[in-house]
Amino acid sequence: MTSTRILALLATTAVFTVLFGIQERRASEPVFPVRLLRDRTVAGVDALSFCVGVGMLGGTTYLPVFLQTVLGQSATNSGLLLLPLVGGLMLTNFATGQLMTRIGRYKPFTVAGTGVAAVGYYLFSTMGVGTTHLESAAFMFVAGLGLGFVMPTLTVAVQNVVERSDLGVATTSVTFSRSLGSAIGVSVFGAVLTSRLAARLAASDLSPAATRELADAGSNLSPQVLADLPPDAVPVVRTALAHSIDLLFLTGALIIAIGFLVALSLPSVELGEDANVQIDEDANVQTDEDANVQTDEDANVQIDEDTNVQIDEDTNVQTDEDNRESP
């Protein structure tokens, strides 16, 4: 049954979002300059970050519920069983930073990460009452590998295309989009879980009162709640909950797959095309790392770091700084 209150809240959210955008366009110092969204990279990365937020936290939040209620694990053991997810994420998160520095591009990792994460979440949707610990660990590791590829690339992508004055707000927009997606994902997935579980339980032999109570518990179902049920009702509830959570994981996989399509559409931009040249604006010193030469533009002086020789281009005099002799 559709809730009028929820529809009214959604409509109010849409109206205020539009009003916020209008006000930001008029403001002399906006909280978020809407002009940044004209850049394909910024707009695409923010959309991708939203999808990752919905899929990642929206789906991952219910993994402990599955492990505890469907597979019968304790809270401590369910936390330990999540380690493959964290391990995979840490592994590719670290490796991505190193590889991005070497090849100078972020897009391959973003595309690969969203693709692998979507596969991982699809594998989650295949889990059921008979899933083994080894299977769940393997699925979590795959999902973690994908998320680890994506997470470090998004911030780098926007920082590479915006002006220095917009670095802060552009970086924050990525984090905000992910946080917004996470909040919406958890809420929507919770509502879907409750509705799906109620429909599954209603089709069982449980009494209407028990069905209502269990459906209202939703994601708060725990082994303690199941322990209070009649023995013949426990398998029914576990099966119903497994199918309900599987739908959430499948939804998360579809949302991350949308993120995969967004990642494919991102511009292929090289990171730091002038990376071999570093400029210290305070000291007005430029370092060419290939030639290993520093130039002080104010003094018109070059310093060859290998020979420790200073060349004054105006007088064409060389000075060995170690013995302070001028030939």
UniProtKB/TrEMBL annotation:
GO terms for cellular component: plasma membrane. It is found in: Membrane. It is a multi-pass membrane protein. InterPro entries: MFS (IPR011701), MFS_dom (IPR020846), MFS_trans_sf (IPR036259). It comes from the Archaea. Residues 1-271 form the Major facilitator superfamily (MFS) profile domain. One of its GO terms (molecular function) is transmembrane transporter activity. The chain crosses the membrane at residues 45-67, 79-100, 106-124, 136-159, 179-199, 247-266. It holds the Pfam family MFS_1. Residues 289-327 are annotated as: Disordered. Keywords: Membrane, Transmembrane, Transmembrane helix. PANTHER family: COMD (PTHR23501:SF197), MAJOR FACILITATOR SUPERFAMILY (PTHR23501). This is Membrane transport protein.
